[in-house]
Amino acid sequence: MSYGPKTLDAADLAGGRGGPTDEPVAAAGARPAAERREPVGEAGPGHRVELERLSAWYGGAQAVRDVSLSFEPGAVTAIIGPSGCGKSTLVRCVNRMHEEVPAARSEGRVLLDGVDLRSPAVDVVAVRRVIGMVFQKPNPFPTMSIFDNVAAGLRFNGVRRGELGDRVREALVAAGLWDEVSSRLRAPGTSLSGGQQQRLCIARALAVEPSVLLLDEPCSALDPVATLRIEELLVQLKERVTVAIVTHNMQQAGRIADTTAFMLGGELVEVGPTEKIFTRPDDERTEQYVTGRFG
Amino acid sequence: MDNPHQASSVDEARAVTVSALLAGEERLRRRRAASAAVDACAWAAALLAVGVLAAVVVSVAVKGAGAIDASFLTQSTANFGGGGIANALAGTAILVAVAALLAIPTGILVAIYTSELGGARPAVAIRYVLDILAGVPTIVVGIFVFGLIVVPQHRQSGFAGSVALAVVMLPLVARSAHEVLRLVPDSLREAGLALGASRWRTVVSVVVPAAFSGMVTGALLAVARAAGETAPLLFTTSIFPDFVQTDPAQALPNIPVTIFRYSESPDPVKHAQAWGAALVLMLFVLLVSVIARALSARGRRRLGSAR
Predict the structure, then answer these.
(1) Domain assignment of residue B46, given as a range
(2) pLDDT single digits (tens) A91-124
(3) Together in a domain, B228 and B170
(4) Residue B195 to residue A126, Cβ atoms within 8 A
(5) Do residue B170 and residue B129 come from a single domain?
(6) Residue among A83, A86, A123, A122 nearest A106 (CA)
(7) Cβ neighbours of B201 in A, within 8 Å
(8) A9 pLDDT exceeds 70?
(9) Which of B21, B52, B120, B180 could pair with B211 in a Cys bridge, judged by C-beta atoms 3.0 to 4.6 Å apart?
Protein backbone atom coordinates (compact mmCIF):
# COMPACT_ATOMS: atom_id res chain seq x y z
CA MET A 1 0.00 0.00 0.00
CA SER A 2 1.57 3.31 -1.02
CA TYR A 3 1.44 6.34 1.17
CA GLY A 4 -0.77 8.11 -1.31
CA PRO A 5 -0.38 11.77 -2.26
CA LYS A 6 2.31 13.82 -0.59
CA THR A 7 -0.08 15.56 1.75
CA LEU A 8 -3.20 13.73 2.84
CA ASP A 9 -6.24 15.91 2.57
CA ALA A 10 -9.63 15.67 4.16
CA ALA A 11 -10.98 13.80 1.16
CA ASP A 12 -8.59 10.96 1.76
CA LEU A 13 -9.59 10.71 5.38
CA ALA A 14 -13.32 10.86 4.72
CA GLY A 15 -13.58 8.92 1.52
CA GLY A 16 -11.21 6.71 -0.39
CA ARG A 17 -9.20 4.10 1.38
CA GLY A 18 -7.13 2.63 -1.40
CA GLY A 19 -7.79 -0.77 0.09
CA PRO A 20 -9.24 -3.89 -1.47
CA THR A 21 -12.81 -2.89 -0.71
CA ASP A 22 -14.03 0.58 -1.43
CA GLU A 23 -16.65 0.92 1.20
CA PRO A 24 -17.22 4.28 2.87
CA VAL A 25 -15.10 4.91 5.91
CA ALA A 26 -15.89 2.90 9.00
CA ALA A 27 -17.02 5.82 11.13
CA ALA A 28 -19.89 6.55 8.82
CA GLY A 29 -20.86 2.97 8.24
CA ALA A 30 -20.52 1.84 11.83
CA ARG A 31 -23.46 3.59 13.33
CA PRO A 32 -26.16 1.41 11.80
CA ALA A 33 -24.01 -1.62 12.72
CA ALA A 34 -23.71 -0.37 16.29
CA GLU A 35 -27.45 -0.23 16.61
CA ARG A 36 -27.69 -3.88 15.61
CA ARG A 37 -25.19 -5.06 18.23
CA GLU A 38 -25.50 -5.25 21.98
CA PRO A 39 -23.31 -2.84 23.87
CA VAL A 40 -20.45 -4.07 26.05
CA GLY A 41 -18.82 -2.18 28.85
CA GLU A 42 -20.30 0.36 31.13
CA ALA A 43 -22.51 3.03 29.68
CA GLY A 44 -22.02 6.54 30.94
CA PRO A 45 -19.53 9.35 30.67
CA GLY A 46 -16.66 7.04 29.86
CA HIS A 47 -13.20 6.75 31.35
CA ARG A 48 -10.27 9.01 30.82
CA VAL A 49 -6.64 7.95 31.01
CA GLU A 50 -4.02 10.59 31.66
CA LEU A 51 -0.30 10.04 31.44
CA GLU A 52 1.74 12.62 33.33
CA ARG A 53 5.43 12.89 32.60
CA LEU A 54 5.78 9.17 32.02
CA SER A 55 9.26 7.79 31.47
CA ALA A 56 10.28 4.18 31.07
CA TRP A 57 13.55 2.32 30.90
CA TYR A 58 14.74 -1.14 29.99
CA GLY A 59 17.77 -1.39 32.24
CA GLY A 60 19.86 1.61 31.32
CA ALA A 61 18.17 2.35 28.01
CA GLN A 62 15.40 4.91 28.15
CA ALA A 63 12.50 4.03 25.91
CA VAL A 64 9.95 6.66 26.89
CA ARG A 65 10.92 10.24 27.73
CA ASP A 66 8.68 12.39 29.83
CA VAL A 67 5.44 11.81 27.92
CA SER A 68 2.22 13.54 28.94
CA LEU A 69 -0.81 12.44 27.03
CA SER A 70 -4.46 11.65 27.62
CA PHE A 71 -6.87 9.16 26.12
CA GLU A 72 -10.29 10.76 25.99
CA PRO A 73 -13.45 8.76 26.67
CA GLY A 74 -15.69 8.00 23.74
CA ALA A 75 -12.75 8.35 21.39
CA VAL A 76 -10.07 6.35 19.69
CA THR A 77 -6.57 7.63 20.32
CA ALA A 78 -3.88 6.42 17.97
CA ILE A 79 -0.19 6.50 18.76
CA ILE A 80 1.96 6.50 15.66
CA GLY A 81 5.66 6.65 15.07
CA PRO A 82 8.55 4.72 13.55
CA SER A 83 9.77 1.40 14.94
CA GLY A 84 11.50 1.74 18.26
CA CYS A 85 9.99 5.10 19.14
CA GLY A 86 8.61 3.77 22.39
CA LYS A 87 4.92 3.64 21.54
CA SER A 88 4.48 0.00 22.59
CA THR A 89 6.41 0.61 25.80
CA LEU A 90 4.23 3.61 26.54
CA VAL A 91 1.05 1.64 26.21
CA ARG A 92 2.41 -1.20 28.28
CA CYS A 93 3.05 1.23 31.10
CA VAL A 94 -0.65 2.05 31.18
CA ASN A 95 -1.71 -1.42 32.25
CA ARG A 96 1.56 -1.96 34.11
CA MET A 97 2.70 -4.79 31.85
CA HIS A 98 6.00 -2.98 31.49
CA GLU A 99 7.02 -3.91 35.00
CA GLU A 100 6.75 -7.61 34.17
CA VAL A 101 9.97 -7.31 32.18
CA PRO A 102 13.05 -7.89 34.34
CA ALA A 103 15.17 -4.77 34.83
CA ALA A 104 12.33 -2.57 33.59
CA ARG A 105 11.64 0.70 35.37
CA SER A 106 9.25 3.58 34.98
CA GLU A 107 8.44 6.95 36.50
CA GLY A 108 5.59 9.34 36.25
CA ARG A 109 1.88 9.09 36.83
CA VAL A 110 -0.78 7.11 35.04
CA LEU A 111 -4.24 8.27 36.04
CA LEU A 112 -7.48 6.47 35.29
CA ASP A 113 -10.39 8.76 36.13
CA GLY A 114 -8.03 10.57 38.45
CA VAL A 115 -6.77 7.47 40.26
CA ASP A 116 -3.01 6.98 40.08
CA LEU A 117 -2.56 3.42 38.88
CA ARG A 118 1.06 3.34 39.94
CA SER A 119 0.48 4.14 43.57
CA PRO A 120 1.45 1.35 45.99
CA ALA A 121 -2.10 1.13 47.28
CA VAL A 122 -3.35 -0.04 43.91
CA ASP A 123 -3.44 -3.76 43.13
CA VAL A 124 -1.71 -4.37 39.83
CA VAL A 125 -3.97 -7.32 39.05
CA ALA A 126 -7.02 -5.08 39.47
CA VAL A 127 -5.49 -2.54 37.11
CA ARG A 128 -5.37 -5.15 34.39
CA ARG A 129 -8.99 -6.03 34.95
CA VAL A 130 -10.14 -2.54 34.14
CA ILE A 131 -7.60 -1.94 31.40
CA GLY A 132 -7.60 -4.63 28.77
CA MET A 133 -4.93 -5.29 26.19
CA VAL A 134 -4.80 -6.88 22.77
CA PHE A 135 -1.40 -7.81 21.44
CA GLN A 136 0.22 -7.68 18.05
CA LYS A 137 0.19 -11.38 17.41
CA PRO A 138 -3.09 -13.11 18.28
CA ASN A 139 -2.45 -15.21 21.36
CA PRO A 140 -5.49 -17.33 22.20
CA PHE A 141 -4.83 -19.95 24.83
CA PRO A 142 -4.03 -23.08 22.81
CA THR A 143 -5.35 -25.57 25.31
CA MET A 144 -8.75 -23.89 25.61
CA SER A 145 -11.84 -23.92 23.44
CA ILE A 146 -13.28 -20.74 21.94
CA PHE A 147 -15.76 -20.53 24.79
CA ASP A 148 -13.10 -21.12 27.43
CA ASN A 149 -10.81 -18.54 25.88
CA VAL A 150 -13.44 -15.82 26.14
CA ALA A 151 -14.43 -17.04 29.59
CA ALA A 152 -10.83 -17.17 30.84
CA GLY A 153 -10.76 -13.62 32.13
CA LEU A 154 -14.14 -14.11 33.76
CA ARG A 155 -12.99 -17.27 35.47
CA PHE A 156 -9.82 -15.56 36.71
CA ASN A 157 -12.06 -12.98 38.31
CA GLY A 158 -14.33 -15.48 39.99
CA VAL A 159 -17.44 -15.10 37.87
CA ARG A 160 -19.82 -17.96 38.58
CA ARG A 161 -20.42 -20.67 35.98
CA GLY A 162 -24.05 -19.72 35.50
CA GLU A 163 -23.22 -16.25 34.27
CA LEU A 164 -20.42 -17.28 31.95
CA GLY A 165 -22.59 -18.25 29.02
CA ASP A 166 -24.32 -14.89 28.68
CA ARG A 167 -21.20 -12.82 29.12
CA VAL A 168 -19.22 -14.92 26.67
CA ARG A 169 -22.00 -14.47 24.13
CA GLU A 170 -22.13 -10.71 24.67
CA ALA A 171 -18.40 -10.44 24.26
CA LEU A 172 -18.36 -12.50 21.08
CA VAL A 173 -21.18 -10.39 19.67
CA ALA A 174 -19.34 -7.20 20.56
CA ALA A 175 -16.23 -8.54 18.85
CA GLY A 176 -18.18 -9.38 15.75
CA LEU A 177 -17.33 -13.06 16.03
CA TRP A 178 -20.56 -14.56 17.33
CA ASP A 179 -22.10 -15.45 13.99
CA GLU A 180 -19.00 -17.29 12.90
CA VAL A 181 -18.40 -19.36 16.02
CA SER A 182 -21.76 -19.79 17.73
CA SER A 183 -22.04 -23.31 16.37
CA ARG A 184 -18.60 -24.41 17.46
CA LEU A 185 -17.85 -22.86 20.79
CA ARG A 186 -16.13 -26.02 21.95
CA ALA A 187 -13.64 -26.04 19.09
CA PRO A 188 -10.08 -25.14 20.06
CA GLY A 189 -9.29 -21.44 20.05
CA THR A 190 -6.45 -22.05 17.65
CA SER A 191 -8.67 -23.57 14.99
CA LEU A 192 -9.69 -20.10 13.80
CA SER A 193 -8.05 -18.03 11.11
CA GLY A 194 -5.63 -15.25 12.09
CA GLY A 195 -8.22 -12.51 11.86
CA GLN A 196 -10.74 -14.55 13.79
CA GLN A 197 -8.16 -15.34 16.46
CA GLN A 198 -7.48 -11.66 16.92
CA ARG A 199 -11.19 -10.96 17.24
CA LEU A 200 -11.30 -13.81 19.74
CA CYS A 201 -8.58 -12.06 21.72
CA ILE A 202 -10.61 -8.86 21.56
CA ALA A 203 -13.67 -10.74 22.78
CA ARG A 204 -11.59 -12.21 25.56
CA ALA A 205 -10.46 -8.75 26.59
CA LEU A 206 -13.97 -7.32 26.35
CA ALA A 207 -15.57 -10.10 28.37
CA VAL A 208 -14.29 -8.65 31.62
CA GLU A 209 -15.87 -5.31 30.66
CA PRO A 210 -12.81 -3.11 30.92
CA SER A 211 -12.99 0.67 31.04
CA VAL A 212 -10.12 1.05 28.63
CA LEU A 213 -8.89 -1.13 25.81
CA LEU A 214 -5.28 -0.89 24.69
CA LEU A 215 -4.29 -2.40 21.37
CA ASP A 216 -0.67 -2.82 20.35
CA GLU A 217 -0.54 -2.97 16.55
CA PRO A 218 -3.44 -5.44 16.53
CA CYS A 219 -3.71 -5.69 12.78
CA SER A 220 -0.09 -5.88 11.75
CA ALA A 221 -0.20 -9.66 11.47
CA LEU A 222 -3.51 -9.68 9.57
CA ASP A 223 -4.63 -9.37 5.97
CA PRO A 224 -6.44 -6.20 4.83
CA VAL A 225 -9.93 -7.69 5.01
CA ALA A 226 -9.47 -8.87 8.58
CA THR A 227 -7.94 -5.49 9.39
CA LEU A 228 -11.01 -3.72 8.09
CA ARG A 229 -13.35 -5.73 10.26
CA ILE A 230 -11.33 -4.99 13.35
CA GLU A 231 -11.18 -1.30 12.54
CA GLU A 232 -14.97 -1.16 12.18
CA LEU A 233 -15.24 -2.96 15.48
CA LEU A 234 -13.01 -0.47 17.27
CA VAL A 235 -15.01 2.48 16.04
CA GLN A 236 -18.17 0.89 17.41
CA LEU A 237 -16.50 0.06 20.69
CA LYS A 238 -15.29 3.56 21.44
CA GLU A 239 -18.75 4.55 22.68
CA ARG A 240 -18.39 2.09 25.52
CA VAL A 241 -14.68 1.62 26.04
CA THR A 242 -11.91 4.16 25.76
CA VAL A 243 -9.70 2.87 22.98
CA ALA A 244 -5.99 3.50 22.51
CA ILE A 245 -4.29 1.90 19.56
CA VAL A 246 -0.63 1.76 18.71
CA THR A 247 -0.10 1.53 14.99
CA HIS A 248 2.64 1.98 12.48
CA ASN A 249 0.02 2.18 9.75
CA MET A 250 -0.77 5.84 9.30
CA GLN A 251 -3.75 5.23 7.11
CA GLN A 252 -5.26 3.12 9.84
CA ALA A 253 -4.82 6.01 12.25
CA GLY A 254 -6.36 8.25 9.67
CA ARG A 255 -9.36 5.96 9.28
CA ILE A 256 -10.34 5.27 12.83
CA ALA A 257 -8.65 7.63 15.27
CA ASP A 258 -10.18 10.79 16.66
CA THR A 259 -6.91 11.86 18.24
CA THR A 260 -3.45 10.96 17.03
CA ALA A 261 -0.19 11.22 18.94
CA PHE A 262 3.14 11.10 17.16
CA MET A 263 6.14 9.74 19.00
CA LEU A 264 9.77 9.81 18.01
CA GLY A 265 12.76 8.57 19.93
CA GLY A 266 10.73 8.06 23.10
CA GLU A 267 9.35 11.57 23.08
CA LEU A 268 5.86 12.77 22.34
CA VAL A 269 6.40 15.11 19.42
CA GLU A 270 2.83 16.19 18.80
CA VAL A 271 -0.72 15.20 19.64
CA GLY A 272 -3.97 16.53 18.28
CA PRO A 273 -7.08 15.82 16.25
CA THR A 274 -6.25 13.29 13.58
CA GLU A 275 -7.17 15.53 10.73
CA LYS A 276 -4.85 18.24 11.99
CA ILE A 277 -1.94 15.88 12.50
CA PHE A 278 -2.21 14.59 8.98
CA THR A 279 -2.94 17.84 7.19
CA ARG A 280 -1.57 20.79 9.20
CA PRO A 281 0.83 19.44 11.82
CA ASP A 282 2.59 21.97 14.00
CA ASP A 283 5.90 20.18 14.21
CA GLU A 284 8.13 19.71 11.22
CA ARG A 285 9.07 16.19 12.29
CA THR A 286 5.43 15.21 12.32
CA GLU A 287 5.00 16.55 8.84
CA GLN A 288 8.01 14.63 7.62
CA TYR A 289 6.74 11.42 9.12
CA VAL A 290 3.19 11.63 7.89
CA THR A 291 4.30 12.52 4.41
CA GLY A 292 6.47 9.46 4.34
CA ARG A 293 9.85 11.09 4.28
CA PHE A 294 11.09 8.71 6.93
CA GLY A 295 9.98 5.79 9.06
CA MET B 1 27.94 3.28 -29.30
CA ASP B 2 30.71 1.24 -30.85
CA ASN B 3 33.41 0.83 -28.31
CA PRO B 4 36.08 -1.77 -29.05
CA HIS B 5 37.34 -1.47 -25.47
CA GLN B 6 33.91 -2.32 -24.22
CA ALA B 7 33.72 -5.44 -26.34
CA SER B 8 37.06 -6.74 -25.07
CA SER B 9 36.16 -6.02 -21.45
CA VAL B 10 32.99 -8.05 -21.83
CA ASP B 11 35.11 -10.93 -23.09
CA GLU B 12 37.54 -10.39 -20.27
CA ALA B 13 34.73 -10.43 -17.77
CA ARG B 14 33.48 -13.67 -19.24
CA ALA B 15 36.94 -15.18 -19.15
CA VAL B 16 37.32 -14.30 -15.48
CA THR B 17 33.95 -15.83 -14.66
CA VAL B 18 34.68 -18.95 -16.63
CA SER B 19 38.01 -19.43 -14.95
CA ALA B 20 36.54 -18.86 -11.50
CA LEU B 21 33.68 -21.27 -11.96
CA LEU B 22 35.35 -24.03 -13.87
CA ALA B 23 38.77 -23.81 -12.37
CA GLY B 24 40.44 -26.65 -10.57
CA GLU B 25 38.86 -29.86 -11.69
CA GLU B 26 41.36 -31.47 -9.40
CA ARG B 27 40.15 -29.35 -6.47
CA LEU B 28 36.57 -30.25 -7.23
CA ARG B 29 37.31 -33.95 -7.24
CA ARG B 30 39.14 -33.70 -3.94
CA ARG B 31 36.28 -31.79 -2.39
CA ARG B 32 33.75 -34.32 -3.58
CA ALA B 33 35.86 -37.14 -2.17
CA ALA B 34 36.16 -35.44 1.22
CA SER B 35 32.43 -34.85 1.31
CA ALA B 36 31.73 -38.47 0.46
CA ALA B 37 34.13 -39.66 3.13
CA VAL B 38 32.46 -37.60 5.84
CA ASP B 39 29.05 -38.79 4.65
CA ALA B 40 30.21 -42.38 4.88
CA CYS B 41 31.58 -41.93 8.39
CA ALA B 42 28.37 -40.33 9.59
CA TRP B 43 26.31 -43.12 8.09
CA ALA B 44 28.54 -45.76 9.67
CA ALA B 45 28.25 -44.15 13.09
CA ALA B 46 24.47 -43.97 12.80
CA LEU B 47 24.29 -47.59 11.73
CA LEU B 48 26.51 -48.54 14.62
CA ALA B 49 24.23 -46.82 17.11
CA VAL B 50 21.14 -48.43 15.66
CA GLY B 51 22.97 -51.70 15.43
CA VAL B 52 23.84 -51.70 19.11
CA LEU B 53 20.22 -51.20 20.05
CA ALA B 54 19.17 -53.86 17.57
CA ALA B 55 21.76 -56.27 18.97
CA VAL B 56 20.55 -55.75 22.52
CA VAL B 57 16.89 -56.07 21.62
CA VAL B 58 17.39 -59.09 19.40
CA SER B 59 19.64 -61.00 21.78
CA VAL B 60 17.38 -60.43 24.75
CA ALA B 61 14.34 -61.30 22.68
CA VAL B 62 15.87 -64.47 21.31
CA LYS B 63 17.24 -65.68 24.62
CA GLY B 64 14.29 -64.61 26.69
CA ALA B 65 11.29 -65.44 24.54
CA GLY B 66 11.61 -69.10 25.29
CA ALA B 67 11.18 -68.59 29.01
CA ILE B 68 8.01 -66.53 28.82
CA ASP B 69 4.71 -68.30 29.13
CA ALA B 70 1.58 -67.98 31.18
CA SER B 71 3.03 -69.69 34.24
CA PHE B 72 6.12 -67.50 34.04
CA LEU B 73 4.00 -64.44 34.45
CA THR B 74 1.66 -65.79 37.08
CA GLN B 75 3.81 -67.82 39.41
CA SER B 76 6.10 -66.37 41.96
CA THR B 77 9.85 -66.87 42.17
CA ALA B 78 11.04 -70.22 43.44
CA ASN B 79 14.50 -71.26 44.43
CA PHE B 80 14.22 -74.68 42.88
CA GLY B 81 12.24 -75.80 39.93
CA GLY B 82 10.24 -73.45 37.72
CA GLY B 83 8.27 -70.67 39.16
CA GLY B 84 7.89 -67.32 37.51
CA ILE B 85 8.29 -63.63 38.17
CA ALA B 86 4.79 -62.67 39.21
CA ASN B 87 5.84 -61.41 42.62
CA ALA B 88 8.73 -59.50 41.09
CA LEU B 89 6.39 -57.87 38.57
CA ALA B 90 3.99 -56.84 41.32
CA GLY B 91 6.81 -55.57 43.47
CA THR B 92 8.36 -53.51 40.69
CA ALA B 93 4.98 -52.03 39.91
CA ILE B 94 4.50 -50.93 43.51
CA LEU B 95 8.06 -49.65 43.86
CA VAL B 96 7.79 -47.57 40.72
CA ALA B 97 4.31 -46.31 41.56
CA VAL B 98 5.34 -45.07 45.00
CA ALA B 99 8.54 -43.58 43.60
CA ALA B 100 6.49 -41.78 40.96
CA LEU B 101 4.13 -40.41 43.58
CA LEU B 102 7.11 -39.04 45.45
CA ALA B 103 9.17 -37.73 42.55
CA ILE B 104 6.73 -36.48 39.94
CA PRO B 105 4.76 -33.86 41.87
CA THR B 106 7.94 -32.67 43.57
CA GLY B 107 9.83 -32.50 40.29
CA ILE B 108 7.05 -30.58 38.59
CA LEU B 109 6.79 -28.11 41.44
CA VAL B 110 10.54 -27.56 41.34
CA ALA B 111 10.30 -26.93 37.60
CA ILE B 112 7.44 -24.47 38.09
CA TYR B 113 9.60 -22.62 40.56
CA THR B 114 12.70 -22.50 38.40
CA SER B 115 10.80 -21.64 35.24
CA GLU B 116 8.06 -19.31 36.40
CA LEU B 117 8.21 -18.08 39.94
CA GLY B 118 11.77 -17.90 41.15
CA GLY B 119 14.33 -15.25 40.35
CA ALA B 120 17.01 -15.90 37.79
CA ARG B 121 19.77 -16.65 40.24
CA PRO B 122 18.01 -19.15 42.50
CA ALA B 123 16.68 -20.87 39.41
CA VAL B 124 20.13 -21.27 37.92
CA ALA B 125 21.51 -22.54 41.22
CA ILE B 126 18.73 -25.08 41.66
CA ARG B 127 19.11 -26.34 38.13
CA TYR B 128 22.83 -26.71 38.64
CA VAL B 129 22.23 -28.73 41.79
CA LEU B 130 19.73 -30.92 39.98
CA ASP B 131 22.21 -31.56 37.20
CA ILE B 132 24.76 -32.69 39.77
CA LEU B 133 22.16 -34.89 41.43
CA ALA B 134 21.40 -36.45 38.06
CA GLY B 135 25.04 -37.41 37.78
CA VAL B 136 25.34 -39.07 41.19
CA PRO B 137 25.95 -42.81 40.67
CA THR B 138 22.82 -44.74 41.50
CA ILE B 139 24.76 -47.05 43.78
CA VAL B 140 25.70 -44.05 45.87
CA VAL B 141 22.02 -43.11 46.02
CA GLY B 142 21.32 -46.65 47.19
CA ILE B 143 23.89 -46.50 49.94
CA PHE B 144 22.61 -43.08 51.01
CA VAL B 145 19.06 -44.34 51.40
CA PHE B 146 20.39 -47.46 53.09
CA GLY B 147 21.99 -45.32 55.76
CA LEU B 148 19.01 -43.01 55.93
CA ILE B 149 16.12 -45.46 56.17
CA VAL B 150 17.18 -49.11 56.22
CA VAL B 151 19.68 -48.85 59.06
CA PRO B 152 17.46 -46.96 61.55
CA GLN B 153 14.57 -49.30 60.80
CA HIS B 154 16.77 -52.38 60.99
CA ARG B 155 15.14 -53.84 57.95
CA GLN B 156 14.82 -53.39 54.22
CA SER B 157 11.58 -52.01 52.85
CA GLY B 158 9.86 -51.26 49.59
CA PHE B 159 9.43 -47.73 50.82
CA ALA B 160 13.19 -47.30 51.11
CA GLY B 161 13.55 -48.66 47.60
CA SER B 162 10.95 -46.20 46.33
CA VAL B 163 12.71 -43.31 48.02
CA ALA B 164 15.95 -44.33 46.33
CA LEU B 165 14.20 -44.56 42.96
CA ALA B 166 12.54 -41.20 43.58
CA VAL B 167 15.92 -39.59 44.17
CA VAL B 168 17.01 -40.92 40.79
CA MET B 169 13.80 -39.75 39.11
CA LEU B 170 13.59 -36.29 40.61
CA PRO B 171 16.22 -34.49 38.50
CA LEU B 172 14.90 -36.14 35.34
CA VAL B 173 11.34 -35.00 35.97
CA ALA B 174 12.40 -31.52 37.06
CA ARG B 175 14.73 -31.00 34.14
CA SER B 176 12.31 -32.12 31.45
CA ALA B 177 9.41 -30.23 33.00
CA HIS B 178 11.54 -27.09 33.14
CA GLU B 179 12.43 -27.44 29.46
CA VAL B 180 8.81 -27.84 28.48
CA LEU B 181 7.68 -24.90 30.58
CA ARG B 182 10.33 -22.73 28.95
CA LEU B 183 8.94 -23.71 25.58
CA VAL B 184 5.60 -22.13 26.36
CA PRO B 185 5.74 -18.77 24.56
CA ASP B 186 5.79 -15.62 26.66
CA SER B 187 2.87 -14.30 24.63
CA LEU B 188 0.60 -16.70 26.51
CA ARG B 189 1.87 -15.52 29.88
CA GLU B 190 1.31 -11.94 28.80
CA ALA B 191 -2.19 -12.76 27.64
CA GLY B 192 -2.98 -14.24 31.04
CA LEU B 193 -1.46 -11.37 33.00
CA ALA B 194 -3.14 -8.75 30.80
CA LEU B 195 -6.52 -10.30 31.63
CA GLY B 196 -5.98 -9.56 35.28
CA ALA B 197 -4.77 -12.97 36.42
CA SER B 198 -2.20 -13.08 39.18
CA ARG B 199 1.12 -14.66 38.40
CA TRP B 200 0.36 -17.96 40.09
CA ARG B 201 -3.04 -18.11 38.45
CA THR B 202 -1.47 -17.56 35.06
CA VAL B 203 1.00 -20.36 35.77
CA VAL B 204 -1.66 -22.80 36.91
CA SER B 205 -4.35 -22.00 34.37
CA VAL B 206 -2.37 -21.06 31.28
CA VAL B 207 1.27 -22.13 31.37
CA VAL B 208 1.05 -25.55 32.98
CA PRO B 209 -1.84 -26.75 30.79
CA ALA B 210 0.08 -25.68 27.73
CA ALA B 211 3.12 -27.65 28.91
CA PHE B 212 1.11 -30.54 30.25
CA SER B 213 1.68 -33.19 27.62
CA GLY B 214 5.40 -32.47 27.62
CA MET B 215 5.45 -32.92 31.37
CA VAL B 216 3.66 -36.24 31.02
CA THR B 217 6.30 -37.33 28.54
CA GLY B 218 9.08 -36.41 30.92
CA ALA B 219 7.37 -38.22 33.76
CA LEU B 220 6.88 -41.35 31.67
CA LEU B 221 10.51 -41.41 30.64
CA ALA B 222 11.56 -41.05 34.27
CA VAL B 223 9.26 -43.94 35.16
CA ALA B 224 10.80 -46.09 32.46
CA ARG B 225 14.21 -45.31 33.81
CA ALA B 226 13.25 -46.06 37.40
CA ALA B 227 11.72 -49.40 36.49
CA GLY B 228 15.10 -50.68 35.41
CA GLU B 229 17.39 -49.23 38.06
CA THR B 230 19.13 -51.96 40.05
CA ALA B 231 21.76 -50.40 42.28
CA PRO B 232 19.36 -48.34 44.39
CA LEU B 233 17.39 -51.48 45.10
CA LEU B 234 20.37 -53.63 46.02
CA PHE B 235 20.67 -51.98 49.43
CA THR B 236 17.07 -51.27 50.12
CA THR B 237 14.90 -54.11 48.88
CA SER B 238 17.01 -57.03 47.76
CA ILE B 239 16.20 -59.69 50.35
CA PHE B 240 12.65 -60.62 49.68
CA PRO B 241 10.36 -63.63 49.86
CA ASP B 242 9.18 -65.97 47.14
CA PHE B 243 5.60 -64.86 47.25
CA VAL B 244 3.73 -61.76 46.25
CA GLN B 245 4.33 -59.00 48.77
CA THR B 246 2.43 -55.73 48.53
CA ASP B 247 3.27 -54.08 51.82
CA PRO B 248 5.84 -51.36 51.14
CA ALA B 249 6.98 -51.52 54.75
CA GLN B 250 8.50 -54.86 53.91
CA ALA B 251 11.12 -55.63 51.30
CA LEU B 252 9.38 -55.95 47.96
CA PRO B 253 10.40 -58.44 45.29
CA ASN B 254 11.45 -56.73 42.10
CA ILE B 255 12.60 -57.52 38.58
CA PRO B 256 16.10 -56.03 38.44
CA VAL B 257 17.31 -57.76 41.61
CA THR B 258 15.65 -61.00 40.52
CA ILE B 259 17.53 -60.86 37.23
CA PHE B 260 20.74 -60.24 39.13
CA ARG B 261 20.12 -63.08 41.54
CA TYR B 262 19.09 -65.56 38.84
CA SER B 263 22.10 -64.72 36.72
CA GLU B 264 24.34 -65.85 39.57
CA SER B 265 22.52 -69.11 40.06
CA PRO B 266 24.12 -72.40 38.92
CA ASP B 267 20.77 -73.53 37.56
CA PRO B 268 20.43 -73.03 33.77
CA VAL B 269 16.68 -72.79 34.18
CA LYS B 270 17.25 -69.74 36.30
CA HIS B 271 19.47 -68.28 33.61
CA ALA B 272 16.72 -68.72 31.09
CA GLN B 273 14.30 -67.07 33.48
CA ALA B 274 16.70 -64.20 33.94
CA TRP B 275 16.66 -63.64 30.20
CA GLY B 276 12.88 -63.85 30.25
CA ALA B 277 12.62 -61.28 33.01
CA ALA B 278 15.06 -59.04 31.14
CA LEU B 279 12.86 -59.27 28.07
CA VAL B 280 9.76 -58.33 30.04
CA LEU B 281 11.55 -55.36 31.56
CA MET B 282 12.89 -54.25 28.21
CA LEU B 283 9.48 -54.49 26.56
CA PHE B 284 7.98 -52.41 29.33
CA VAL B 285 10.63 -49.71 28.95
CA LEU B 286 10.28 -49.72 25.15
CA LEU B 287 6.52 -49.46 25.36
CA VAL B 288 6.60 -46.58 27.81
CA SER B 289 9.23 -44.76 25.74
CA VAL B 290 7.19 -45.09 22.55
CA ILE B 291 4.05 -43.80 24.26
CA ALA B 292 6.02 -40.92 25.75
CA ARG B 293 7.40 -39.91 22.35
CA ALA B 294 3.98 -40.12 20.73
CA LEU B 295 2.50 -37.88 23.39
CA SER B 296 5.39 -35.46 22.99
CA ALA B 297 4.81 -35.16 19.25
CA ARG B 298 1.12 -34.53 19.75
CA GLY B 299 1.82 -31.91 22.37
CA ARG B 300 4.33 -30.12 20.18
CA ARG B 301 1.85 -29.98 17.33
CA ARG B 302 -0.70 -28.37 19.58
CA LEU B 303 1.62 -25.69 20.89
CA GLY B 304 2.86 -25.07 17.39
CA SER B 305 -0.62 -24.37 16.12
CA ALA B 306 -0.87 -21.31 18.35
CA ARG B 307 -0.14 -18.95 15.47
Answers:
(1) 4-65
(2) 999 999 999 888 899 999 999 999 999 998 999 9
(3) yes
(4) no
(5) yes
(6) A86
(7) 156
(8) no
(9) B180
